[in-house]
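Checklist before submission:
- one chain only
- standard amino acids only
- sequence pasted in full

Submission:
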Amino acid sequence: MSFNKTLSRHYKIIYLLQNKPRSFKEINNELANQQDATEDLRVSQRTFQRDIQEIEQIHQIEIASDKSKNVYYIKESAEDEYKTRLRENYDIINAIRMSKGMGESLFFEQRKALGTQHMADLLNAIQNRKEVKFKYQKFWDASLTNRIVKPIALKESKNRWYLIAKDTKDNIIKNFSLDRMSELQLTNLRFTSVEYNIHEAFENSFGIINGTNDKVSRIILAFKIDQGRYIKSLPLHHSQKLISQNDNEIRFEYQLKPTFDFVQEILSHGSDVEVIAPLSLRKKIIEKLKASIENYN
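Returned file contents:
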């Protein structure tokens, strides 16, 4: 049996069980009704059990059985962010695969590549504690600089991926956007573990900015009702807590540092949001809005 056929069957089984639990008979009937398949994908019970094991190994998706109802289902883990993201990425990959040959059925944003081609080498370097070197272009500077760093972790923020690493030039831990890297190379220079807890470092940060003098604050934002519902469904930060709601607005509380990127996030919501507390952040937003108005005078 070809690997492509096995993979196609994996995709279909995952797709079916994401919709609802199903019996082996129901799954096999659906595998027989593949409009886009050149081969019959039906399998024996024994092969199906092997498929379940391979799906967990290859796709990191665990399929369990409910013997009382005689059905199979995808085992959810609310606290396992790693598996949740794998599932989400699988959905995207499967959608791209399904849309092939269907004309204009899937539209992508036109944007620059994210630098994800560097991820495998960087993860290798992190795991084996190898220094890496690359050329780097800052966001505000067109010039290229040569960097040699001790990689610590990869972090996502605002649809970009960043390398958190200690720069060997000054021994300062910095953030490097992967899409700004070029000519990445793993060196043979190994380093001892870098004492840096990324979870603690970014616990109270909104995005990728954390090495500032900003203090953690109790921030209260009031959103107009329509925008508030959107924010309620897609929180700005993991500390977001609903504190009040009426027909006009929804208020949320946050525990974080009011860094530049968080200020920019507030400004991006325009008149749909009002900073209630702290007063210092409210004044900063007012100053920014006044400066923006001046641009049009």
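Reviewer check: The mean pLDDT is 87.
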